[in-house]
């Protein structure tokens, strides 16, 4: 073995990990393979040196590198011990010195913790030299003392980045379990030119160092997100096997400063004020444009089975965000007045649990998100409240002009499909105040009267804004019917007041004035059980058609008892002059009566006639005090005299005595 064939190429005096052994590296610079069985390593000056005989192993190939330092590397099974501050190391073969390295004051510089003293690679006719580098055990060393690197097999000058061209963009500082060789960081390339990563250094405020050291230039382009994987020299696992190695100790898991440098010049600086939980990276807000204060935040996107991160890609945005089809995006917060409480079903027919719903009209000019929307219900006395929160990672968008339906779990049926499920929705069956909040801001407040079972309360379309619905009289009971009751879920509300629907359009109804409708015949006591078989006949005593919508039929007894029913259909109940209009309960057909209009629950007192009244709003349309009816016999009003008597004859179809839908016989 000749001196020119085997040389010292690298030495590690202060490993990054205290329990890691010191080591040196040898390099076969000859043109034949070398057997190391007779190699002797001496440490220290002549006469007092420590001697280590290399254990015989396989041959070192041409151009090969080998690290020596562990007990199994030497015949006497001792680990290599080197003086950290100064010393001499020599290679011997059969009494011949092959190579010697002297380091310390006035000699070669002493590397710090985690750094190597390396004989730089000779390149393009340049002589090799010793310098401090990141560890490259078993690999080719970088060039020392000159800014030369290799690209596509050819040497060229290193393009060093300057401040502002590289930014610390994302850091995985702490992974579950042992961090060694699993941590990484991501850079973001700004500017308008390609730069090289070779020679980059990372430093913390505890004087620990990390270095990118390679014979390759490691060029990156503007817009790239290059990854640097920390290599501690312990173990061989890495979370980023294809990333650029960053040699040094494990990254800090606490707060403090990190500095990115090139040739001693500061490129970027980051001060960590907090570190996310293990397995979650810390990323720079992608909205940062290179100017102003930066914001870093914990990643949201799933990263394999390790945790949450976005290596090699744009980071998740900071601040309130939701998951859309294209990834995470900023939440579009609503402002006051952009979401309007429009309709509420607080008391469905049957069990309320989970079957309630409410409708929000989106008055915003642009789309908004319902994420983090909070609904607060105050009972009428304002002493009790209930709250529900729409908390979801998936974006819950609401578009301008949309009637958005929020429903409980049981509301989601084939007949009613809420746009958003509001778990646990259970509103008060009482007068109440509803509020919408988002991000600590009140968006809308609405006062609602006590609801009727199976009937929603809708905001008058003429008052559909977040100010007008602050009055309880802005809401009214729905008249339109849907599969599960009365209401207009997902569509425009019924107008409040004297309106009815004619075809597809609403119009003001034509109210009957006083005396324009006359109570003409009453059937209050069917034979047997009443079961909705009661009916009343009205004569249209006017020269023009009128609407029965809103008409109230009331019966009062002398003892103070009373009952009333209202014709409140959404469709216009148009009746023509001279018509005999029959209003009946739901079972009248069983007696052969074909009513013009049905009223649910119509059931007159049978034991006493009392007084019957017709009212529409504040107008008393007609009243009558008929005689008491007998079972199966109607009472009729004689035209002209106004006298009442029991019917003595019936029609062909009617099962009792009376003339429903026809002129009455005289008394």
In brief:
By secondary structure, the protein is an all-beta fold.
Element layout with pairings:
Blueprint: E1 6-12, E2 23-28, E3 39-43, E4 50-53, E5 65-68, E6 87-93, E7 96-103, E8 116-119, E9 130-133, E10 148-151, E11 154-157, E12 166-172, E13 184-189, E14 195-196, E15 200-204, E16 209-211, E17 219-220, E18 227-231, E19 244-247, E20 256-262, E21 265-272, E22 282-284, E23 296-298, E24 302-303, E25 307-308, E26 321-324, E27 327-330, E28 339-345, E29 357-362, E30 368-369, E31 373-379, E32 385-390, E33 397-398, E34 403-407, E35 420-421, E36 432-438, E37 441-448, E38 457-459, E39 475-477, E40 481-482, E41 485-486, E42 499-502, E43 505-508, E44 517-523, E45 535-540, E46 546-547, E47 551-556, E48 562-566, E49 574-575, E50 580-584, E51 597-598, E52 611-616, E53 619-624, E54 635-637, E55 644-646
Parallel strand pairs: 18-19, 34-35, 50-51
Antiparallel strand pairs: 1-2, 1-8, 2-5, 3-4, 3-6, 6-7, 8-9, 10-11, 12-13, 12-22, 13-18, 14-17, 15-16, 15-20, 20-21, 22-23, 24-25, 26-27, 28-29, 28-38, 29-34, 30-33, 31-32, 31-36, 36-37, 38-39, 40-41, 42-43, 44-45, 44-54, 45-50, 46-49, 47-48, 47-52, 52-53, 54-55
Written overview of the protein:
Strand 20 (256-262) and strand 21 form a beta hairpin. The protein is built from no helices and 55 strands. The chain has 667 residues and is mostly beta strands.
